[in-house]
């Protein structure tokens, strides 16, 4: 009886295990089939949404409601590409910037965990995976996370596209702007990216007509944001717009550190004429004055300069950009605050900069490493441009894996030296640590001191920072390097002092 009992029990256990494995295999096959179906639907929806977005971008849309709808469609499209690329390259998926209101405590815990781990990135998708706590299988949890994010991306695009019938009809009523055909990576590489809504907000302020009989007053728009976030670039692109150039007879730029001790006369002498419309013969035509300063302005200086606006023509405008929030008080309208790009928008920009015309799906391991780098560097435009130069020259898994390691060590070393993470959008009152990303065992490191701007016509150092990272140049001691050269207006050069030290 004992032998019979043991044999029966063994048979039952064997069958139970077989049924379990079979059920699990069937479940995995069903999940794989469902994931592939969602991927196909997502690709189809992205093709449709991209067609609408590209068509809208080549037309001169001025309706505010349509612009907001276009912005929402663009965000959903970028989100879709982010999910698609993450699934194809096997990267961890998170919720992007879409956090629920009840997740504030989780955000604090994540921020503290990031600080201790030296990742310190508000964009790290691996730290935002939300999966059911009841499942103990890591593979099942990851599969569930992918399916959930795919469903959300598909549902979001389907909802947006379902509401686009009237949008497309009205879109055809706007005249197309003549533009040469372009590849996506060439467009991203040579145009301002991700600031369409901010640009239209400035355009509405500049082109707003004054009601009849309104008192003469100089309109002032403050634009604030951290260093290297794109304030100057945004204003420059606005001033290049033909609508602005035809609206104002004269566009003046004032680019100095502050306005202290400036008089009305000295201020006008230091202004640079950005554009002059010869079609306006009268001296009483509208003016646009752009003031770019780093810090705050005292009340007395501002009141003295602003009072000179009484002599300007009706409808003249002024834009003031600064890193200081204090300039908001000088505005006659709500200030425009520039922030970092969303996770999805920055990834789209970064992958186009790094991969160019190549499809990241053809290089899943490299794409996964690129997503990790993008999540660590907090939306830095300079990293996307500087790093892309090096990564394209060393287009292999070994070099990119080493680059990820170097970035993590860069974060860790800066925290250990300075007590906090330092990035490209903070004021540089102290140096920051860096080293080569290509040398496997560096015996030297360098400190980068303040990054400052120089105009396109000014002399700049011959050694680019990308050569330091790639070990193409190994100078000694202290020297200036060309940190980054912008390829879009106003074509600024960013220079910093580099100091080589032994480890």
From TrEMBL:
Residues 197-357 form the NB-ARC domain. Transmembrane segments: none annotated. Coiled coil: none annotated. InterPro entries: NB-ARC, P-loop_NTPase. It comes from Urochloa decumbens. The lineage of its organism: Eukaryota, Viridiplantae, Streptophyta, Embryophyta, Tracheophyta. It comes from the Eukaryota. This is NB-ARC domain-containing protein.
